[in-house]
Design goal:
Order of helices and strands: HHEEEHEH
Shape: globular
Structural class: alpha+beta
Number of strands: 4
Length: 128
């Protein structure tokens, strides 16, 4: 959990309580971890380079969360790849309504991958 929290912090996401984060991951439908296969001048072997997850009812709806790529690897295609694989995995499971929440600075990336803003105003968020 510490390694994932470190990645989150590097991309500007808040650090999360490790017990709650572990529970969230156990309740996740689809998870992709991107790790360096071998040591290079850009990464250590096994280093976490990217991450994405999706929650779902397993039938109709899914939400993609926590798409994160190590800043030194942003622009390399890892974000696109992990998002494409996450969406493809959900579609393979028969899930047709896939949504995500995006930081303003990455909306353009998601639009290139066929996600669209909900301009109808039907998307809403309840926060405590």
């Amino acid at each position: 959990m510490e390694e994932l929290n470190d990645l989150f912090a590097l991309v500007g996401f808040p650090r999360r309580d490790e017990n709650k984060l572990a529970l969230a991951l156990r309740n996740t439908h689809t998870i992709f971890w991107i790790r360096a296969m071998r040591k290079s001048r850009w990464a250590k072997a096994g280093q976490l380079l990217g991450f994405a997850r999706a929650t779902s009812d397993g039938v109709y709806n899914a939400v993609i969360w926590d798409v994160a790529v190590l800043p030194s690897w942003q622009g390399s295609g890892l974000g696109r790849g992990v998002l494409e694989r996450t969406a493809a995995s959900l579609v393979e499971d028969g899930i047709s309504n896939i949504t995500l929440f995006a930081e303003a600075n990455v909306v353009e990336l998601y639009e290139k991958l066929y996600f669209r803003e909900d301009v109808s105003g039907t998307g809403m968020t309840f926060r405590v």
